[in-house]
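In this section we walk through a basic example: taking a raw amino acid sequence and producing a predicted 3D structure, encoded as discrete structure tokens. The instruction is simple. Fold the sequence below.
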Amino acid sequence: MSGSTMTGPTGTAPSGSPWVLRDYALIADGERGALVDPRGQIAWLCAPAWHSGAVFSGLLGGPGRYRVCPSDSWNVWGGYYEDGTLIRVSRWVTTDSIVSCREALAVPADRARVVLLRQIRAVRGDARVDVELDVRGDYGLQPMSGVGRDGGLWRARTGPLHVRFTGAEQAQPGRDGALRAQLRLPEGSRRDLVLEIATAPQEAPLQPQVLWEATERWWATAVPDCDDTAAPRDTRMAYAVLNGMTSRTGGMVAAATTSLPERAGTDRDYDYRYAWVRDQCYACIAVATHGPHSLLNRAVRFVSERILEDGTHLRPAYTLTGEPLPPESSLPLVGYPGGSDRTGNRAGHQFQLDVFGEALQLYAAAARLGGLDAQAAKAADIAAEAVAEFWAAPDAGLWELDRRWWTHSRLCCVVGLRDLARETHVPAAREWSRLADRILDATRSRCLHPDGHWQRAADDSGPEAALLLPLARGAVPSGDHSLALTRAEVVRHLTDDGYVYRFRHGDRPLGEEEGAFLLCGFMMALAAHAQGQGTEAVRWFERTRSTCGPPGLYAEEFDVAQRQLRGNLPQGFVHALLLECSARLGSAEGAVSPAGR
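The resulting token sequence is shown next.
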């Protein structure tokens, strides 16, 4: 922007400790995502794809940094998302100025090229802003090299990746190869920075205004209004997160990160930068509850391609390009405090029966909205065949545990078969309904507790919060008392201070082994709604909705005592269930209630 000046490089800033998870914001374009910390550092970004090596890995104690923040370290941070987008505005109040930095990953996205936009503004008073760029590919193993400037454009390499950077033409490279500068902006002025990281050399001009305008147009069409929901702004945020985490291939990553601990020092930290079929189904069943959307169409395509390729041997998770997950391995990083440094995931080799049930529910939702094409219908037939073949076999279940006769898996299949039979009216529909009845009868004989509530498994009489979802979606007839009895059992044994836990870990108190599961809190709200308990449904919904951090993002777990998020961030299926709850609770006519499906 005209009127801004720049001085020489500043000293090297210490990397510092990571922030608590609730303080990180996400910017994403569907093909990858970046976490931004309160001091304006890109703490995590993998390129070119979600599961590629990180080029900025400070979140896990690694090298590589892109920092934009006021030079005056005595400041208070804040920020917000532009409504219905993942365009983030970071904001700092210093002793003599107010500075903001608008940031986004440019969309529409290119799978081979990430473009990170940052626009610094001197909102009040003159601003001095430090800029530091050190791109280090492959989790920090590839230092930035070949740093050179051609006019106002910096070029560099990091391993096989090509880097271009504009807006800091007077920056100077340090001995470590990093670019550093201090910007001086008069009040009311702005400065645009554009960072591009690509798999091949690029020559197209990096024009900030053109890129920002395209990004604004994309977000304007990606997120619906949502004024018909119970929490419009948070519902729009949920849509934005789901859009930002969903690739052009149709696959949606479970979360943007890897190895963030669910509980310090317990070795329960995993790589979630892949597409779980179940999570994908949760997200788009939720979207379908609200109405037609391209997210639903893309999910149907992605899940159908996986089923048509792998048949009844469908994997529970894939890369976003449909490939098997890589094996677990260690990274050359310290790891987030209390966590580890792993990449890859073993869950891709498990058999999880409920995935087929959720896929059937996805296809039923698509059929209800007129979106079940011939390819999807064929995949639905295969999913139903898989249920018929494997429903009596033990599986790893929703929580990816030992192979057992999990109640939840079978009830999910009952819902999926019945929904698909009702919505498609094909010749096989009658057989699907009969199969659903057989599965329900067998599950009732093995998994219904003598007291009338559903238990976790045939050999485990304990309560299980995940059972609330298939029960809320119609696994049992509306007059069946097992929904009410199961929900009461979950409230009695698996809740604390309005938060819901998955299941008991032996005789240990709730909260000792793991945090409350936010997914289960929204499931509780849906179950109360299915019972006609509107006020109670809203209470569970609002209690769970309140757990997000300042940016409005949710992780998998919530530490009730410390009021902190735990696990990878953001967790897509939590945002999905918030969306579904908000849509159902906001439907004045009840057209999307379970009874009206």
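Looking at the output, two observations stand out. Residues 1-14, 588-597 have pLDDT under 50 and may be disordered. DSSP finds 13 helices and 26 strands in the chain. In the next section we compare this with other chains.
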